[in-house]
Amino acid sequence: MRILFAGTPAVAVPSLRALVDAGFDVAAVLTRVDAPVGRRKVLTPSPVAAAAEELGLPVLKANRFTPDLIAHLGTLGLDAAAIVAYGGVVPREGLAVPRHGWINLHFSVLPAWRGAAPVQHAVLAGDDITGATTFLLEEGLDTGPVFGVMTESLDPGATSGEVLERLSHSGAVLLVQTLSGLEAGRVTATPQTGEATLAPKLTIDDGRIDWSLPAVAVRRRINAVTPEPGAWSTLDGQRVKLGPVTPIDGSPDGGQPAVPPGRIDVVGRQVLVGTGTDAVVLGDLQPAGKKMMSALDWARGAATRGELVFE
Questions:
Q1: CA distances from residue 105 to 12, 119, 134, 173 in whole angstroms, order as listed
Q2: Residue 85: which of 71, 102, 105, 70 has the closest Cα?
Q3: Distance between CA atoms of residues 160 and 199, nearest Å
Q4: What's the distance, Cα to Cα, between the start and end of the chain in Å?
């Protein structure tokens, strides 16, 4: 089967490698244009572009489907196109190019969490199950009929980055199975059923922690935005980036918080932060202008400042 692969971030790379290893004829790899990276804003190829170059595959770079790009894709004799987190909308004219259409690997069990940040929203919602879906791409937002689904339990302590890393590999297997079945005529797409939920991209503002919320909600939000866009709070008017936390059972019998929301206490070798219920143990943090460090090392240096409270 002759295919196009479209993808951009690191989570799409396992799928590209799996398709090549499975013997698919990858006519070209479509990815977004080089983007500025780091403080110096150095233009850098996407992870998918770098992997494609390593594999010796032709690379097309575009952020949108122009008539010229669509015309070029039409010359490739494509049986199908596999798309994994490409980051752009395929218009109707582009959808019609491959003989079997565009097969999208999406990191949720559709119709749950349609959109750009399915894993982040699943973590934020405290879902018990996550997974990946292959479906036929159409003009609607992740609304197309489904070819295959895989599921796994969602660890309540896992960050979005950790979950995505796992799903990028198990999802790659599902994508290979789907395309192989499509080539052999063994699989057909069926309409999605169930209640749809949306998963828009999370912003920096979504990473601000409200310490008055219950500990479980604080943990979920931090995990959901780790590593991107990142969890943060403010201390003395300065933004502090936060790593994952661990809830502890510290409430007295009356059900009131043992540590007031936002207050930072050092107890033994643990740095506790109060929430609306139990305190949480802070792992790492990054003060403004400094590198990520252990909360205990930071707290020892900040102890002379008196009472410390996240705002």
A1: 9, 13, 5, 10
A2: 105
A3: 13
A4: 56
Measured CA to CA, the distance from residue 29 to residue 50 in angstroms comes to 11
Q: What angle do CA 193, 194, 197 make, to 5 degrees?
A: 120
| CA–CA distance, 127 with 223 (Å, rounded to integer) | 13
Q: Is residue 25 over pLDDT 50?
A: yes
Residue pair 124/207 in contact by the 8 Å Cβ criterion:
no
SS3 of 122, please?
A: helix
What is the rounded average pLDDT for all residues in the chain? 94
Q: Tell me the pLDDT band of 307, cut-offs 50, 70 and 90.
A: confident
Quick one: which of 90, 89, 83 has its CA closest to 104? 83
pTM of the model: 0.93
Tokens of 79: 């049986």
> What are the residues facing 146 on neighbouring strands?
135, 190
Residues 6+ apart with CB under 8 A from 66: none
d(CA 32, CA 27): 17
Residue 305: pLDDT band with limits 50, 70, 90: low
What b-and-e string marks burial along 147-170, b requiring 16 or more CB atoms within 10 Å of the CB?
Answer: bbebeeebeeebbbbbbbebbbee
For 55, counting Cβ atoms within 10 Å of its Cβ (0-12 exposed, 13-18 middle, 19+ buried), the class is middle
Q: In degrees, to the nearest 5, what angle opens at C-alpha 96 toward C-alphas 94 and 100?
A: 120
3-state secondary structure of 308: strand
User: Looking up tokens 């943060």, which residue turns up?
Assistant: 232
Render pLDDT for 78-100 as a digit per residue (tens, 0 to 9): 999 999 999 999 999 999 999 99
Angle 281-285-287 (CA atoms, 0-180°, nearest 5)? Answer: 140
Could you report the per-residue pLDDT of 55-84, keeping only the tens digit for each?
999 999 999 999 999 999 999 999 999 999
Q: CA gyration radius for the chain?
A: 23
